[in-house]
Amino acid sequence: MTFTDAAAQSRTMSRARRDLVDGFARRELWAHLGWQDIKQRYRRSVLGPFWITIATGVTAIAMGGLYSKLFKLELSEHLPYVTLGLIIWNLINAAIIEGADVFVANEGLIKQLPTPLSVHVYRLVWRQIILFAHNIVIFVVIAIVFPKPWSWADLAVIPALGLIVLNCVWVSLCFGILSTRYRDISPLLFSLVQLLFFMTPIIWNEATLEQQGAGKWAKIVELNPLLHYLDIVRAPLLGAEQELRHWVVVLVLTVVGWVFAGIAMRQYRARVPYWV
User: Mind listing the pLDDT tens digit for each residue in 94-107?
Assistant: First the structure.
């Protein structure tokens, strides 16, 4: 690599980093746009975004009640477990599915307004955080009905949510750029995420595997990275014991993901307006 090539790559990486920083600095813009997305989606609706809360709550209660009976589990334990799993899953699912279309969906703004590309990703993630805040009300109600003992260690949910948000940003960046170039990626991800839902311990857990004589599959399930993302948030809120390995896996994946996001932004950020 020549000195000229190295200097060019350094400038490109600097622009990519500046895009992320400048995009975050325009938080008034993406926060306003994210809020407007929700208002526009539920325009003339009486309950607004709480329709999602109601739908999530009904699904959680139906699945939690059904599977607690099928697997002979305590409803007071399984219902909060399923509810949190669905709420966290909705956040991760949106980062993947909607993240894949984040730049295509904002084609007009990208071509007409000179804003950093990251603004559109921050807008998406902020919108999902608002919806997450609406949905977490369901768990609060269930936690009141089925109270659990709390400890100071349960505050680990705060950095855990921070890690989830950081991962949502890099996932949306990477899949957004990839799907802009290759439009087949979006439907492929949709099918893959549907499959991952059933392979991730959301409506079932390790105890159900052991009951069905499939305890040996527990080790294979550990290979699913989404398990670790769910556990670092779900365990503190359920008052369960937190395992260090889940945090280690998530931290490693966060670093690796942001490295890939940095490379993607450096190499292809300037091409996105032409691809959309």
Answer: 999 999 999 998 88
